[in-house]
Each structure stands twice: as structure tokens, then as C-alpha cells.
Amino acid sequence: MLGMPPEPGGYSIAKFSRSARPYQEWALDLTQEGAERFYKTFYFEYGHASIADLAHLTIVVEDVSMVAAEELWDEPLVDGQASSTRYQDFRKRGVVIPSEIHGAGWAGRYLATCEKLIAFYAEAHARIAKRFAERYADARPPEMPQDKYERTLRARAFDVARYLLPMGVRTGLGQVLSARTLERMLVRLLSHPLQEVREVARELKAAVAERPAFNPTVERLRPVLDALRALLSAHPSDGESKAQGLLKQIERLVGVGARAAPTLLKYAEPSPYLQRVQEALEELAARYGRKLGEEPDGARGVHLHGPQAPLDELACTLLYRALPHSYAQIARFVAGLPRAERARIAALAYEGRGPHDPPVREARVGYSLIFDVCVDCGAWRDFHRHRRLVQIHKPFRPCDAYGYDVPPAVEEAGLAAEYRRHVDEAVALARELERACPWVGQYALPFAYRRRSLFKMDAEELQYIVELRTRPENHFSVREIAFQMFQRFQQRAPELARHIRAVPPEHEEFFKR
To answer: Is pLDDT of 105 > 70?
Structure first.
């Protein structure tokens, strides 16, 4: 089936499931108006939520910060692609200035700090590419054309230089997802603490539910329709009204002015439940932060946990998002709490939940493989793209314990001192911003800064991640962390791990991309 708009397309499959007639007998008669009537009855009145999974949309979001882009990506049931940092000139694209610091005396310093990072990013890329050309001169395959050779050098150098990019840089992404997934995403984004994220959600909702959708077929056909309209105007005849009627029918059939999903998404609003859970997490942080009695662990690397009793896992997971400590630190603390107190913590995941609110992601407990990963933000973005697992992310804040990574190639190129100076300046600014405007400090943090997340999965998803991410063509930091995940699993289940095709990070194929 080709050419069906999202809501009538979803309606057609839902109707097919409720009819004994062949699909093609009635599919041509389906309209947006009929779809709206159907959804109002079956989706909103009867609560048949699954039919919203049948209406699929393609969305493209441009010129948002990396901060907002990662929030858009934080949805399991999407397919998409993000703008690769390798193909962007960030000196032209620039950065997003958070609304929270407009007029607060921070914008000028923030912009200057980001511009210095981006300028040094470009300089470092050139010098690292030159260093790679020297280091790998003898490893170049003799059959490799010059243009491919130069592209590979540039790409590998970008893998290092990207550590300097601040999270405020502008980017874009495209996604294909169902209306139900988009509605859940919009509710989450509209409930977010950051103004930019809420603004993106409002704009996305308007683009999908209120304004005409971008339709390439209509755009290609528009000159033809305009020419036909001009011809009718210049040469009126007795058949003019009939011709005008045919013109309008053509416009309706190809979807001129049609909205993508005017029915299914019009009720997406901020969720008091999600906002209450966020408040509860902040209360947990205030209540238990000092009780843990130790500094947060910010060491780079991977730890494997689980399985746990569901009550303990939920309590640990909620505290994990609330506090900067590692999962191991939190699990030790929770193990010493009375069961009644663990139950009170776990109950916060459901407090204030409305009749249409799915439980927060922390409630997805029961996975036997719980990986606690602390890694540079650039590599974290690659792991964030995986969908068949549960991801629990700590807010990206300049925690004193975490620090940042310095790639070996930076040292080899003689850039370490300048690199540290630029990153230290950005981190210092991020800490000041965070104290003045909670959640905003992350805009100034470079990709080099570490962040910590839980990745809960089964053995098959681990195998997929390891076999994909340890290949030589991957980013060196991603390869290292993926291989550590394999090693931790190997210690627990060696009989299963032997079937995973993991490539050790020391196995290097520089020119394989």
C-alpha cells in the first residue's frame, strides 16, 4: 500500500481487522473525515489504544540543540537517523542559547565559551588528521583511492575532535514512529524542566496536528495545479465550474493542505504525573544524598548488576536517577533499608498516576542484565540509539566526581594542554550555570564529559550491541565500552558468551569504515 495519509492509513488497517471484506474493495473510499469519526469512537471513547500504533508519521526536527535532540531520541519505539557530527560545519550552525539565561547576564559568556570550543574543534581536527596521516602512512591499503583515503582520515579525526563539541550545538534528526508513540513523546517533552524541550514539543505538536504537512507529491504537483488554475482563469468556458470542481477534487486526493495527524495528537498535554515523579526524585535526592555516606563514583567503565527482587530493583532505579552515585553504591545502601522504606521509595513511581498515564520507565523491572555505564557523552550518544532495552539516564549535570576523557590521539598530536584548558573552562561555566539555572549547565558541557546510565536488557540484545559496536569501524570509545559489557557478561555466563562475536579493541583496522 502506497500513498495513504497517516490517519486514514491507520484507519484502513483497523477497519480491515473489523471486516470480512477484501481490503481493496473499500480502501479507496476512506477519507480523513471518516478516520476522525472512527478514532473519536474507538480511540477516545472505547480506549482501543493500539489502533493509534497503525498511523505512522515521518517527522524531521532541525536546528535544535544536542540537549533537545537527545530528549527526542529517548523513546524506545522509534526508527530514525540523527545528523552526523562529521558532516556539520558548527562554525556556521552555531549553538542554541537556552531561554533560561536570556537576559540573565550569562548568554554572552556562554556563547563565547562555546565559540572557543568550536574553533578549537576545527583546529584540533586538522592537526589530528595530519598526525593520523603520518602514523598510518604504511597501513594504507594500496588499492584505496586518494579521495577515500582522505575521507577516512577526516572521519577518524572527527571521532577525536568531537570530544570538544558542546551540547548546545545545533543539530537535527528524522524519525518514523506511530501516533501513539508520538503522543507519549509529546507528553513527556511537554512535561520537561527545560524550556527548549517544551518549545520543541509545542512546535512538533502544531506541525503534526494543526498545520498542513509537508507533502513532496503536492510540492511536485503544485506547478501543474497552478498552471491549470491559470489556464482556467484565462480561458473561461461553459465547463469552467466543472473544471474547477475537478481541480479541487485533485487537490483533495493528493492531500493539498492536509494535516498529518489532526485527531490522534490534539489532546497531548503536559502530564502532572510525570511532573510529580520528577518532584519526588528531587525530594529523594535531598533526603538520601548525604545518607549514602560516600562520594559518587565517576570512574569510566561498565559494571554488571542483577537480577534483583523487583521491589529492590525499582527502589534502586528511582534512586539511581535521583542521585549521582553508581548503581552499586545505591544497591548497597538500599539493601540496608527496612523493607517498608524500600516499598515507600518504590511507590513513588506510581504516585499521582492518572487514568491514561503509562507508568514511568523506572517501573520496568525484572531484567537479568543491568549494565551501569559511565562513559564520555559522545560515546553515550551511540549507545543511546539502541532501542530494544530499557534505558535509565541520570540528568546530564557537571558532577564533580565524573570528570572528562582525553583521547590518546589528543596527547599524540600535542594538543593535551590546550584541550584541557578549553574543556576546563567549559565545565567551570557549566557548574556556574547549573547553580544559577538547574538543568541548563549541560548546554555548556562538551562531549568529553562523562555521563552515567543504566542499560537493562536480555542476552540477545547484549549480543547485538557487542557484535555491532566492537567492530573495528566503530568509534574507539564505543568499542572499548561495548567490549567491557561483553567481558562482564563473559564472567557471569561464559557458556553463552563464547557464542558472541566480540572484537577486542586492540584489534585495529584504521582504514575500515
So the answer is: yes
Place of cell 563473559: 490
Residue in the block written with cell 550552525? 93
Rounded CA Rg of the chain: 26
* Nearest Cα to Cα of residue 67 among 485, 489, 437: 437
pLDDT of residue 237: 65
> Domain count of the chain?
1
Q: Which residues contact 77 (CB under 8 A, 6 or more apart)?
A: 177, 178, 181, 387
Question: Cα–Cα distance between 281 and 352 in angstroms, integer?
Answer: 14
Euclidean distance between CA atoms 230 and 241, whole angstroms: 14
271: phi then psi, degrees, rounded to nearest 5: -105, 115
Cα–Cα distance between 328 and 308 in angstroms, integer?
12
Residue 227 domain flag? yes
Inside any domain, residue 220: yes
Please check whether residue 187 is in contact with residue 269, taking contact to mean a CB–CB distance below 8 angstroms. Answer: yes
Cβ–Cβ under 8 Å, residues 135 and 409: no
CA angle 242–246–252, rounded 5-degree value = 145
Angle between helices 416-436 and 107-135 (to 10 degrees): 150
Task: Please provide the size of the chain in residues.
Answer: 513
Strand pairing report for 170-178 and 56-65: antiparallel
CB 472 within 8 A of CB 507: yes
Q: Kindly report, residue by residue over 322-378, the tens digit of the pLDDT.
A: 999 999 999 999 999 999 999 999 999 999 999 989 999 999 999 999 999 999 999
247 in any annotated domain: yes
Neighbours of 127 (CB within 10 A): 18
Query: 481: which residues sit within 8 A by CB, 6+ positions away?
Result: 301, 302, 373, 375, 379, 383, 469
d(CA 219, CA 420): 50
Three cell numbers, residue 248? 479541487
Check: pTM over 0.85? Answer yes or no: yes
Across the strands, what pairs with 365?
none
**How high is the mean pLDDT of the chain?**
92
Q: Which domain does 226 fall in, by range?
A: 216-254
Q: What are phi and psi of 454, to 5 degrees?
A: -95, 135
Cα(77)–Cα(80) distance, rounded to whole angstroms?
Answer: 10
Strand partners, 59: 175
Burial of residue 6, with CB atoms counted within 10 A of its CB: 0-12 exposed, 13-18 middle, 19 or more buried:
buried
Segment 139-175, tens digit of pLDDT: 999 999 999 999 999 999 999 999 999 999 999 999 9
